[in-house]
Amino acid sequence: MQETYVSGILLAYAAFAIGLFSPGPNIMSIIGTSMANSRPAGKSLALGIATGSFLWGTLTLLGLTSLLTVYASLMTIIKIAGACYLFWLAFKAFRSAGRSKRQELSSISLGNNHWAYYRRGLVIQMTNPKAAFTWIAVISLALDHAAPWWVGLSVIAGTSILSTIGHLTYAYAFSTQTMITAYRKARRWIEGLLGSFFTFAGYKLLTSDV
Fold first, then answer.
1. How far is it, in rounded angstroms, from Cα 203 to Cα 68?
2. CB under 8 Å to 192, separation ≥6 — which residues?
3. What pLDDT, in 10s, does the model give residues 120-170?
4. Cα separation values, 180 from 24, 40, 102, 118, 187, Å
5. What is the largest CA-CA distance in the chain?
6. pTM
7. Torsion angles phi and psi, residue 42, rounded to 5
């Protein structure tokens, strides 16, 4: 049983980490801000977004744990919903891989007030409704109605570290045009791999024991 939980936790880590390789508006804002303003500004924005990710994860875990304490049968519905969202992410990745149009960068300019960049990143992440669905899918990969307390905490702790490292990496590495150009050349291959992984993760979630 312990091995089952460990494999689920590792799969949750992998799904979260792979998701960081598919830049959405948040990450494109980090990249654009790092390029247009400065690397420190991008770092502050990245830390705000990572903090928001941690808060979403914590709120999702507390909510799911509370629901499962009262309604253990809800785990089946939650896993189906999580799997459907992973399949949706796979569809989006495959669709993006099939397109030649590149995603445009967006930048945020708040002067040299790095605390303001941090707050903006936090607000951006906390007002993103898709974050809740992402976290339900990620946590469902590791959780079931009988999971001990350390399983959820392990997911939150590990993904928080991955989120901080991943978002800061974008601020550091993609603050130069060279990295942007290299990523855009490989984007369609990356999106194709992401689609394959999300399909696999959704299948694992649907076929896992509840």
1. 22
2. 93, 94, 97
3. 888 878 877 677 778 888 888 887 767 788 888 999 999 999 999 988 988
4. 14, 18, 11, 23, 10
5. 53
6. 0.71
7. -65, -40
